Amino acid sequence: MDATNHSGRVLRGLLVTAALLGFAGATPALAEGSWASYISSWGPGSESRRWADSDRDDVATSVTFQGCQTGNNDFKDADLQLYKDVFGPDKVYGHRSNHCDTSSWGDQSAGDYYFMLEGVRSGSRLWVDTVTTRY
Length: 135
What we know:
Blueprint (H helix, E strand, L loop, with lengths): L2 H23 L8 E9 L8 E3 L8 E9 L6 E9 L5 E8 L3 E3 L6 E11 L4 E9 L1
Antiparallel strand pairs: 1-8, 2-7, 3-6, 3-8, 4-5, 4-7
């Protein structure tokens, strides 16, 4: 085997390996951020913590409830609103009815956000074992 042919095959092998490693190392876009907590005895007007979305991705802002109860243990749904914290009255980004599942508001622009409990059907207080917010 001559040295030129061998060097060409080695170079092609290195290029193919580098390309394959590049594909293997590529990762899908992940949520910019998330946080998890719980809710204990919330009534209408209770607010979540605030979070900063830098809008570096295309991930929808969502709130997931797991393990929902009301004072009479007959949970049906919770009315949530997403707000953007701005100077003056905060901007409302829409109402969602959460049935102890995931509520989504789509991809939001950069800013500080929070959600508020507007009401609970079949009860006046809300308890949620796990609240996960992704943005």
